[in-house]
Design goal:
Elements (H helix, E strand, L loop, with lengths): L5 H15 L6 H10 L6 E2 L18 E2 L39 E6 L14 E5 L123
Parallel strand pairs: 1-2, 3-4
Amino acid sequence: MPNLPIKLLLALVLANQSLTHAADLTRAQVEQMLAKADNQHPADLRRKDLTDLDLSNLDFRNADLWGADLRRSNLNKSNLQGLTLDLTVMTNIKLNAANLANTSIFGVSLMHADLSNADMSGSRVVAIMDGANLSHANLSDVQWAADMKNQSMGLMRASLKGANLTGANLSNAQLGRAMLKHAKLNNANLQNADLYSAEMDGANLTGANLTNANFSQAKLHDAIFNEAVITGTRFDGAQNLPDSVKPDPSK
């Protein structure tokens, strides 16, 4: 390369880096692939770099997104129902009001993702969702317990430390060993939820805000409620209520 000024060389390097990190496809190209896809011939988006794209309001049910990089992308109100999203990268993704019912999300980072008002009912999730916004999401019948079949890989469980689950519907959820430290669960519905893990401690709600949450008929054996805020929290009919949340008989 000829002797170019150092500032020009740096500009060329930075430009090359920008090109290297650009998404593999545009929204228009993704739309074209989805339009041609069907159940037998899904749109092949496996391992594609789709970072920073606006993919809102799209129907991905005939797509293969396994291992795709969706960091910071906007999938608000998109339909991903029934998909296998294992090993995708979804840090800081926007999934407000998206349909994620009955999806499989394994080995994924959803840290700081926006899943507010999303439908994740019946989903199977073993992921890091620390700091995520799941306020008013439909999380009924979710399977978010620890995955005991993969403990050789380390403890595989749903981690929701500091997550916002205000007003979320977690009825009938499987949450054994879920990490919910300092999560916001005020006004959340956990009726009939199962927080018990036969192999280890149950769900960890240390320091969580449970104000006006509903744990009626929930299974709480070995669940950890240390320093949790339980003002107005309902535990009627709950099984194995820990001493830390039992009402004070002297009052």
